[in-house]
UniProtKB/TrEMBL annotation:
Region feature Disordered, mapped onto this chain: 173-210, 454-476
Name of the protein this chain belongs to: Integrin-like protein
Pfam families for this protein: FG-GAP (PF01839), FG-GAP_3 (PF13517)
UniProt xrefs under PROSITE patterns: FG_GAP
Signal peptide: 1-30
The keyword Transferase belongs to this UniProt entry's keyword annotation: no
Organism of this sequence: Streptomyces chryseus
Amino acid sequence: MPRRTLTAAIAVTALATPLALFATSGTASAAPVPPRTPMTDFNHDGHADLAVAAPFGTVGGVEKAGYISVVYGTASGPATARHQMISRATPGVPGDLQSSFAFGAQTLPGDLDGDSYTDLLVVGGGGDDREPTVLWGSKDGLTGQNTVLPYWPSEFALGDFNGDGKRDLVVNSEPSDDPDVSGMTIQYGPFTRDGKTRTQDSITTDDGPSGLRSFITGDLTGDGVDDIVTTHGFEEMQHEARFWKGSRTGVGHTSKALGTAYSGTVGDVDGDGYGDLITRDIGSVTEVIDSAPGSITIQYGGSTGPSNTGKKVITQATAGVPGASEANDAFGASLSAGDVNGDGKAEVAVGVPGESLDAATGTGAVILLKGASKAAGGMTGKGAIAYNQSTAGVPGVSESGDDFGRQVSLSDLNKDGKADLTATAPGEDGAFADSGALWNLYGSASGLTTTGAGTLSPVKLGAPEKDAKFGHTLGG
């Protein structure tokens, strides 16, 4: 990736608890404001939508050109009645169909221009297709307007880092032309249709070239303003993550170390009003990421951010967690937090795409960890439940290489105030190998239920199946 200073404005989405409306007020001294993020609603009809990428799908005879299926929500959840297939061949989407460019390798939803319609930022996976393309929301759904953002980031996220109710973008663009410096640039929204904002700020992270790896965003201090956690490393080594506090004047330029982390999410798992940090930790060496059994770390939030006080480490060897901690499980490959049963405490969906069942290897699973108050010991393995295609009521059959749980999301799909689970299996076979599929399981007062569980796949949406890996990336 070329190193370049970010000189124009840009756009993307937040990693935070995917349930409830966005908070725009609150102070650290007042009652804490639970972490929240907007609904993904591309057509602003009040129902949650999904953007499911098939970045290796064949489009117009071009293999691995990639496409995105946009599935619009209804009162009972996402349905096949209305959907779009968007690729480089779609009018208004810049660029041409090219093999191996993998349109949709990264997708992130968020209302970039402040018009109440969720937009979608899309990045390809190869060649010259790594400049972000913005698909703009409208009453008719997503539309392309030839908007390309002039940089090649590898990581980016959205949040409201100055508490004005507008989406801001953070990217791992070096704020210096010095190749030995890394850092991040924050674009404070809203964005115009040509990708510009009024203000930006750059922060040097002082950890050497290419040191900043990813972002986790969400309100960890209870003040109604999103914060940033950055993960760091160089080559195969993982370094300590850092916490950067957001405020009414923007993100501060000082940070505190949190321990090693690879990726994560934010959710109030103990119900005290402060967002908690849930991260995937695969140790100090990341050469083969998914070869480790995997573990997650929970650091509870407070007025000064996440703390090591009461810190929890959970693996499949933790009492109450289904399965066994084994090589290649990749426990925590995807994480999402949301209140499944409506008790005010967020559950955490943990993707375990390498989990094996009996003789079938790499079938995958999702483990739901139950939220619990600090008085009850906080989040542990108690009450954890595993879901896979062998679970009663879950459609399909567990087979080797399904990769079930590669992407997970907890969001309110049917507008009942409870988070629902979306889980993908890009290795699921249809008429072709690795065509991919996703599952929706709905929340209830007693937790996730398989009653009414539904699936979406390329064949159901009339989209190309061959090698598509539908669900490799999930937006919404």
